[in-house]
Design brief:
The protein is α/β, with parallel strands linked by helices and 332 residues long. It has three domains: 53 residues, lambda repressor-like DNA-binding domains (434 Repressor (Amino-terminal Domain), Orthogonal Bundle), CATH 1.10.260; 126 residues, Rossmann fold (3-Layer(aba) Sandwich); 131 residues, Rossmann fold (3-Layer(aba) Sandwich), CATH 3.40.50.2300. Helices cover 44% and strands 14% of the residues. The strands form three sheets. Strands 2-1-3-4-5-11 form a six-stranded parallel sheet, with helices on both faces. Strand 3, helix 7 and strand 4 form a beta-alpha-beta unit. Helix 1 packs across helix 3 and helix 8 packs parallel to helix 9. The termini are far apart.
């Protein structure tokens, strides 16, 4: 196997020049880059990533800690980050925290121990205070799907309150008054924000929030089915169901049909996220667009700008939800 000494000898340059080329140092002439790269190719020399990391004090690796790895939401998020990093010649190291405080902390320690240049976090169990303290450490962090005022420049988030408000207002404008709501886990900030937006819209239309038509789900498909079955057992009338995400909405749609009800004739339904599958459901699901892929890309661009000095990049932190009207709601 060829060595860096042989590369320097063949190229006719110093070891330091070869090192600067390998580490993309800005003060290297184009001629030197061409000569050194040609020598490395001729000798079949492959730079040692650990040695490069020590020399540059950068690993070119970004850590990503997410709540889960399954489902379209996290798939869109991870692909958005990875595509931007890969284009910039960086790599992602991914782990999951499963919405558990100890597991999330262990995941962060794992990524720091791997010498990641920065860490992207979508976490549920860790407190704001913990993340604020973490942001003051030697490894930079960015946070997705959460707004923490003290580190707001490091946060990328959706106005979930507005999203919940838009979903409910849309249902109300179709004349519905008896409205069921299937939420995500109440420990999650996006869940409570969407629920509070829902309640605001009800108040504006003079309708009281009905605890009997409320079910706490898990954001998973199965809990959408379970939620509808729970609501039907109450034997209380409702003409519409608002689900806090599209996965639960798709489960709810199946349960509605399993109970010999038609959508939207017997029950209107709306989701949240605008997942790719929503326009392939029957009927096509009305939902609220959550641009998670754009948000994820922006978190990667923040790192490229602030960690790797790509100062031309423009960063946007807050994203706005929009209503996507399809076929799953009817007027009454």
């Amino acid at each position: 196997m060829a060595t860096i000494y042989e590369v320097a000898a063949l190229a006719g340059v110093s070891l330091s020049s070869v090192s600067r080329v390998m580490n993309n140092h800005p003060h290297v002439s184009e001629k030197t880059k061409i000569i050194v790269n040609a020598a490395m190719k001729e000798l079949g020399y492959r730079p040692n990533s650990v040695a490069r990391s020590l020399a540059s004090k950068r690993s070119d690796c970004i850590g990503i800690l997410v709540s889960e790895l399954h489902g379209p939401f996290y798939g869109d998020m991870l692909s958005g980050i990875e595509s931007e990093l890969r284009t910039a010649g960086k790599h992602a190291i991914i782990t999951a925290g499963h919405s558990d405080e100890a597991t999330e902390k262990a995941g962060i320690d794992f990524l720091i121990d791997r010498n990641c240049d920065a860490i992207i976090l979508l976490v549920d169990a860790l407190s704001d205070d913990y993340l604020i303290k973490l942001s003051k450490g030697s490894t930079p962090i960015v946070v997705i799907n959460r707004h923490i005022t003290e580190i707001d420049k490091n946060c990328f988030y959706l106005d979930n309150f507005l999203g919940g408000y838009l979903a409910t207002k849309h249902i109300l404008e179709y004349g519905h008054k008896d409205i069921a709501y299937i939420s995500g886990p109440l420990m999650k900030q996006d869940t409570t924000d969407r629920l509070n937006g829902h309640k605001k819209a009800l108040t504006e239309f003079g309708i009281e929030f009905n605890e009997e038509l409320f079910y706490v789900g898990t954001y998973l498909i199965e809990s959408g089915k379970e939620g509808v079955n729970h609501l039907l057992k109450k034997q209380l009338p409702f003409t519409a169901i608002i689900c806090a995400n599209d996965e639960m909405a798709s489960g709810a749609m199946k349960s509605i049909r399993d109970n010999d009800m038609a959508i939207p004739d017997d029950c209107s339904i709306i989701g949240f996220d605008n997942s790719f599958f929503t326009e392939y459901l029957h009927p096509q699901l009305t939902t609220v667009n959550y641009p998670i892929k754009d948000m994820a890309k922006m978190s990667a661009l923040w790192i490229l700008k602030n960690i790797y000095n790509n100062n031309k990049l423009i960063i946007k932190n807050e994203f706005t939800p929009t209503l996507v009207s399809r076929e799953s709601i009817r007027s009454i």
